[in-house]
């Protein structure tokens, strides 16, 4: 019995020892697990803020976005859309309420990551450009000039555009297709796969060059005008708009509207050419009905310069600004909402770093 008791005590002691060791190991493991890196959290929150800003701003103006694209690719011999109001009424009558938002799901699927990357890339590019600028000038208190902000915005736009361009390409086709189109893209991924198989991988980047060239002044001017205008208002405090170095939401919306108007006016012709190049090779856009009822093949473009030349030759210089009115009406609230939403979401998420910082 004594030996059995001894064995029992030994086993009990061993069990207790094992439990203690496991507890200590668990404690050590818990202490070894590090909390999320603050920089990682800041980056994640910044990306989330940019994505929310992009999705909300584009959904708010989705009907105008679709009408703009339809006007851009509309054949001059078969005009269906004569203006903003008439165009929206026509879409409503033919396709109903859902027709106004056709392609918006694809647009948001593209613009959410695009906007997230764009805002984050701008902040990172701004920090690095500012660091180099201060080193070159020897002034540790130097701030970004409008030209440097333009450069940072251009870098951000190129990175974001290139990363999400195939989504933009198929979004254009989804927006243009109707119930009568021979090929029906069922969604984003079906369109991506169909274009890839039928037209080749390079087709996913049709119109990329004018897009990149256009995004330099567009995104660059958006950020440069928005930030510079905010700085000017804070420093000069005109008309009593600024109190305690903080702009109101209304004033920020006005700054965003001004930025969007300047950017899109400069870059719009490149956007028209991009859309037209994206339609090349799509068999549902391979023929159009002219005014006399005959079928005519649309123009084929060998490149960006050729697209510019043929568009101006056959339709006049004004063709480069087709859809500008609905786009202008769209851009003002869209860019304004995007900038303000981005800053508000970052405030909600507790990210102290602002674009200006």
UniProtKB/TrEMBL annotation:
Belongs to the mitochondrial carrier (TC 2.A.29) family. Keywords: Membrane, Mitochondrion, Mitochondrion inner membrane, Repeat, Transmembrane, Transmembrane helix, Transport. PROSITE patterns: SOLCAR. GO terms for cellular component: mitochondrial inner membrane. It is a multi-pass membrane protein. The keyword Repeat applies. It is found in: Mitochondrion inner membrane. It comes from the Eukaryota. Solcar repeats lie at residues 41-128, 144-232, 247-348. Pfam families: Mito_carr. It comes from Penstemon smallii. This is Mitochondrial carrier protein. InterPro entries: MCP, MCP_dom_sf, MCP_transmembrane.
């Amino acid at each position: 019995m004594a030996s059995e008791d001894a064995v029992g005590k030994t086993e009990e002691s061993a069990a207790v020892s094992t439990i203690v060791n496991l507890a200590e190991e668990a404690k050590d493991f818990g202490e070894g697990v590090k909390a999320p890196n603050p920089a990682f959290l800041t980056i994640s929150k910044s990306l989330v803020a940019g994505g929310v800003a992009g999705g909300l701003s584009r959904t708010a103006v989705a009907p105008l976005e679709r009408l703009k694209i339809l006007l851009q690719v509309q054949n001059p011999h078969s005009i269906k859309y004569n203006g903003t109001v008439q165009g929206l009424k026509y879409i409503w009558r033919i396709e109903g309420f859902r027709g106004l938002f056709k392609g918006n799901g694809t647009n948001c699927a593209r613009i959410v990551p695009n906007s997230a990357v764009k805002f984050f890339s701008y902040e990172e590019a701004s920090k690095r450009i500012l660091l180099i600028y201060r080193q070159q000038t020897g002034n540790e208190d130097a701030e970004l000039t409008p030209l440097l902000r333009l450069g940072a915005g251009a870098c951000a736009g190129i990175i974001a555009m290139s990363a999400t361009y195939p989504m933009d390409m198929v979004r254009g086709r989804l927006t243009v297709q109707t119930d009568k189109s021979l090929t029906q893209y069922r969604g984003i991924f079906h369109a991506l796969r169909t274009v890839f198989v039928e037209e080749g991988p390079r087709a996913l980047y049709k119109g990329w060059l004018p897009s990149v060239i256009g995004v330099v002044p567009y995104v660059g001017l958006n950020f440069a005008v928005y930030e510079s205008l905010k700085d000017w208002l804070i420093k000069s405090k005109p008309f009593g708009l600024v109190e305690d170095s903080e702009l109101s939401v209304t004033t920020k919306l006005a700054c965003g509207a001004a930025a969007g108007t300047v950017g899109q006016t400069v870059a719009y012709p490149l956007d028209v050419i991009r859309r037209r190049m994206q339609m090349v090779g799509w068999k549902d856009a391979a023929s159009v009905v002219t005014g006399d009822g005959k079928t005519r093949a649309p123009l084929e473009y060998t490149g960006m310069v050729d697209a510019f030349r043929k568009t101006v030759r056959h339709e006049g210089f004004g063709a480069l600004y087709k859809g500008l009115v609905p786009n202008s009406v769209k851009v003002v609230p869209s860019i304004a909402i995007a900038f303000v939403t981005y800053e508000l979401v970052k405030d909600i998420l507790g990210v102290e770093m602002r674009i200006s910082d």
